[in-house]
Amino acid sequence: MDKYDLATLRAKDLSGDELVMQCVCAKHMKSSLGPWLDLARKGLLGGLHTPTWFTRADIARLQQESPIPLFFVQNAESGARLGDGLPGTAFPMQMALGATGDESLAHAWGLAVGREVRWNGPNWVLGPVLDLAMEPAATCVGNRALGAAPELVARLGTALVRGFQEAGCLVAAKHFPGKGRASSDTHIVERDLDVPLDVLAREEFYPYQHAIDHANLTGVMPSHLRATALDTEDLCTASKTHLDHLFGAMRFKGLAITDSVAMGAMVARYSESERLVKPIEAGNHLVLGDAWIDAEKTLGHMREAVASGRLPRAILEPRVDAILAVKRKLFLDALPPAEPDYAAHEALSQKIAAASISELRHDDAPAIDLSRRYFVLVVADGQTASNEPEVQLDTSKQGEVAQAARARLGEKHLIREIPAFPPPGNIGGCLRQSLRETDRTIVLASASCGAFKGTAHLSRPVVNLLEGLAPKVDAVVTFGNPWAALDLPPVPRVVFGYRGAHTVEAAMDVLFGSSMATGALPVPARPPGF
After folding, report:
1. Does 275 share its domain with 401?
2. DSSP assigned state of 396
3. Which residues have CB under 8 Å from 403's CB, separation 6+?
């Protein structure tokens, strides 16, 4: 099929299928990608969730083959790297940026990651995360967020937006209206945000409003929860009143793209066709699809919505004209991306990690004295979001932490790794080793964070163990979700390492006194005694 002239193309020039499918960004599995690529080559696709196995050449080739340029979207919450095909510098998670409180670092983070994303070929970053990390149980947010305070998140979030957009990327600030209070994961279940509208305006909405007013925010991702002050029926993704508030009262002028409609909250409430059609009906420009709804079914559902009058041209044409206007800016007006300075970006990543480390300590907290023999307990991640069943998650972080401790301490000290759910024998053995074989104790503990899994807490067996060790503990370092510190017994010193590139080494530098902690804890996770 011949390519359209994007400079002059308008929605009225498109067929019904071309028009409605510009509102679809495909989510797919590797086995089902082929038919989506066929649709793209026919001009029947607005965008694609970038496959993790694609290379720059794959993206460039598909762009060349598509009659209408495609959005390639990706998450970039800790850097631009995507699978083995698209390289990128690894960065600390956003909460590490929050701990620095530094707008210049946030801007530089967004600019660096954005440049790498554009060089690789994607053009739309699904971020930054503007949720307020207020609720420990919101594990699908955790250290993906910048922090809990609206002013902090607004300042740094707007700086990130500026960086991404200056690099030539669209953004989709997420997850509007905000799921940092949610005590459950919308990847799994529905959740209400039951807060008065004036509170939402001061808190959850404020980072979005700030980015709209001060950075000309180009995109927003509505979430699969329901702000009951706006709508008591539909989730935000499918709610006209939520979207009307965003585009009306908040004066947002960019594009709205949904989170994946495959998530549990959407599946529980809407049928297959409704999950695709209702978000566009409500006011979104694009729907990020469901990998379980294949290309043929998706096209069928969208065609039916047009034929039935649910999505008439009068609704679709203004949305698609907005999409085409953004594509003209991306593909006709912007300068070609330049190859990133990866060495400079690596140095920036290290700088952010070093600046992020936060510490709470009592005046009488002892320094680490390596002339004494230490028992170093390294605790793994371990719980699902529902805490049922108790499972061992990925232990790669535990291994990294243990390796870093061995490199600092050498053979003299006793380093022991335990699972997140240690059996009684492990607990007794640790207590005996700490009490009988070593002088003092250091605890290095991780709490995971992420969709479908993660925890705000250490497991009860680990808490019991730490309570037994507490009289000999000189310091605890937490990695990952900082809320885990709330489970600690009284200890003289807590170091917060957050998560992401270089954060383990940076935390070790603070622990062993080779650098000072300059970060500020961006969430109310102070353990007992502080």
Report:
1. no
2. H
3. none
Distance from C-alpha of 266 to C-alpha of 250, rounded to nearest angstrom: 25
Residues 361 and 338 in one domain: no
CATH number of the CATH domain containing 427? 3.40.50
Shared-domain flag, residues 265 and 378: no
CA distance 107 to 114: 10
One domain for residues 96 and 238: yes
Cα 64 to its chain centre, rounded Å, is 30
Domain shared by 280 and 142, yes or no? yes
Which segments in the chain show pLDDT lower than 50? 384-392
Domain assignment of residue 244, given as a range:
11-346
The residue among 268, 270, 290 whose CA lies nearest residue 281 is 270
| C-beta neighbour count of 257 within 10 angstroms | 27
pLDDT of residue 118: 97
Q: Write the secondary structure of 132-175 as one string of H (helix), E (strand) and C (coil).
A: ECCCCCCCCCHHHCCECCHHHHHHHHHHHHHHHHHCCCEECEEE
Q: How far apart are the first and last CA of the chain?
A: 66
What are the tens digits of pLDDT across the range 431-490? 888 888 899 999 999 877 666 556 677 888 889 999 999 999 999 999 988 988 999 999
